[in-house]
Amino acid sequence: MTGIKNYLHSLERSRASLLHKDRPRTFAMAGVDWDLLDGVFAPPFSASTGVAMELLDLTGPDAQPWHGSFLEVGCGTGIVAVSAALAGCDRVTALDISEQAVRNTAVNAARHRVTDRVRAVHSDLFDGLVPGDRHDTVYWHSNFVLAPPDYRYATMHERAYVDPGYRAHRRYLAEAPSYVTAEGRVLLHFSERGDFASLEALAEDCGRRLQVLRNRTVREGTESVEHFLLEITETATGLRGKADRTESGKAALA
Q1: Whole-angstrom Cα distance, residue 187 to residue 74?
Q2: Residue 134 CB: number of other CB atoms within 10 A?
């Protein structure tokens, strides 16, 4: 296991960020200020949030106006969700398993006056959504570092860094297409800190295909790490499985 893929290294990064003596209450990113609450993933201590904004074309010279609805899993401070609203999305739903992160997103939505378009929801992946609630874009900046299946989180903060046995990734691959519109797209932010071979195996098992849309390599401390924006689509196997489930559901209601 290389240094950047070592889950113990990522857990050390989590603890350092959580307990940093200079952890700010506010910080600047994408040319504006943001609030940071205790216990929430801190973008100032990681390059990944800034990379996410670039990969989504929400900042920088390639920034483009957005339209339609946007669903973010793992919203943290709410930078991506709020920026999507500021870029033009008329309906943004921001989900996080951390109640503190949900509060942080709501605070930043109020700071940037987009509470009419941004709704923050406490949710373990999609559990907090109403079935049939579909969006034009579904997005997750995942906790892409693979931890052993039996690892138990010591803090809520660690959930932003590692995924034991890639259980959350399996759920996202399997469930995300159910929450996207017919012409919409399912996106996943991944990096070489994660195990791409394992992700591809999970995708195949779920009847999904992964396509790299964009990539960026950035310095994270002493390391260079490549980040990817992936699009998830359903394979023929996945579509057949969906059709079978739909027919089974109709039969149960008959």
Answers
A1: 13
A2: 16
Exposed/middle/buried for 146, CB within 10 Å: 0-12, 13-18, 19+? Answer: buried
> For the purposes of burial, counting CB atoms within 10 Å of the CB of 22, is it exposed (0-12), middle (13-18) or buried (19 or more)?
exposed
Cα distance between residue 229 and residue 214, in whole Å: 5
pTM over 0.90: yes
d(CA 108, CA 33): 9
Q: Which fold has domain 3-253?
A: Rossmann fold (3.40.50)
Nearest residue to 126 via CA among 177, 162, 80: 177
Q: Are 37 and 100 in contact (CB under 8 A)?
A: yes
Residue 30, phi-psi category: left (phi > 0), alpha (psi -120 to 50), beta (remainder): left
Pair of tokens at residue 133: 């609630």
Angle between helices 48-55 and 79-86 (to 10 degrees): 30
Tens of each residue's pLDDT in the chain, 254 residues:
567 899 999 999 999 999 999 999 999 999 999 999 999 999 999 999 999 999 999 987 777 889 999 999 999 999 999 999 999 999 999 999 999 999 999 999 999 999 999 999 999 999 999 988 999 999 999 999 999 999 999 999 999 999 999 999 999 999 999 999 999 999 999 999 999 999 999 999 999 999 999 999 999 888 899 999 999 999 876 555 554 544 544 444 44
Question: Which residue carries 């709501």 as its tokens?
Answer: 106
Q: Residue 191 to residues 16, 119, 124, 152, 212: CA-CA distances in angstroms?
A: 20, 28, 22, 22, 11
Longest dimension (CA), the chain: 61
